[in-house]
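Q: Can I see a sequence and its folded structure?
A: Here is a first one.
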Amino acid sequence: MSPTPKPLEPNAQTETVHIVDDDEALRDSLIWLLESEGYSVATHASAEDFLAIWTPLLRGCLLLDVRMPGMSGLELYEKLASEGSTLPVVFITGHGDVPMAVSALKKGAIDFIEKPFNDRDMLTLIAQCLELDRERSSQKRQDAEVSRRLELLTSREREVLDLIVAGRLNKQIADTLGISIKTVEVHRARVMEKMGVASLAGLVQQVLVAETGKH
């Protein structure tokens, strides 16, 4: 008797391995493998089924068959990427689908694995993907916190901050804004306090990450 897939948790933040494959036997074998290792698993028989439940809040990773009826795995991947999804993706490929999988790797997929695959190789990939998802999730939280702190700054404090990040010295900032050096020092201290940093390097790094999204 095939194992019954666990239903998708109502909380999208639950770390879940999502399997999108039209092959029911493969889905069942992956459920058995992954649940025996303690993973939360959700299966989807088509790309369309997965899109119906996808939200940007989903945590975990995605095992995605390259070739499926209807929307292909590659098309689903491109659709998710256009929507800003950061879920790590591993493609499951047949022998003839390797070129498509390589194309997906060039677009940001994590890896691909050929059928029939070794269980240990699959588990290694899953562990790597989930660790990457945790790192990305942590970075998202840090970015959101920096954005929240930036909103606490007054317009004058933001002006001072922008000039600090531009590499200006206190005297240059004072001249640019038409205020005293002492006033610049006061604003600078408040900026550091509100941003929760102890060093100029930490301040600049926070702002650059928030503005560019590059980590």
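Q: Show me another, different protein.
A: A second, unrelated one:
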Amino acid sequence: MNKTALITGASSGIGEVFAHRLAAQGYRLILAARSQDTLERLARELAGRFAVEVQVITADLSLEHTPSEIFRQVQELGWHVDLLVNNAGFGLSGEFLSHSAEEYRQQIKLNVASLVDMTHLFLPPMLAKGDGAIINLASLLSFFPFPYCSVYSATKTFVLSFSESLWEEYRHQGIKVLALCPGPTDTQFFTKAKEVELDRKRSPEQVVDTALKALSQNKSFVIDGKLNVLNALLARLLPRKTMVSMLGSVMRKSLASRAKG
């Protein structure tokens, strides 16, 4: 029987590439995101191209009940999820007070709470089978505080720590847990986090290929791209105050340049 992968945030970017890569490997797919039309088009494309079964779940994971609703629908399908890809998330940039508290609550719910809930729901069936894998989308910003992207970088620090802890807790029981830490990537992320957009980005395909290779090696985390690896290493070598001051200076210059432009 083919294995099944559940991908959140599957309608575009990294999530969409995961869907293509896993379908090419013969996985049955469950695609979850808010955009039903986009998901259904992607499902038809993948089913036709790779001859795999694809199910669509329209869901807003920033809502508290959504992970339980996704789990219920998967149970009704009668499918066992072998690989969970917690990809859904978004970032906000700019000074902390430039966004409302409600916007930050939505970001924390999506980037942190829903990821924990999805993991808590889908991990027990994996343990019962003695086999399974979870990929959680962290970030290069998991490794250092990032001024003008403060809440986002904090949520991704949580994801990295959470994933590494689970890797150690469950690796002896047949479960792989990977924190995927991409740097700037050519996705729709920068539609909301436009203040931190850079010209030089990795592609979603590069990020997903890095993730799947690291998962096959049972790594607890992986950073995509050699330059990003060096940046994470630099963050660990420099005093935290020095690092955050450097990043703050860079961001202030970038914000000032965009304001003039």
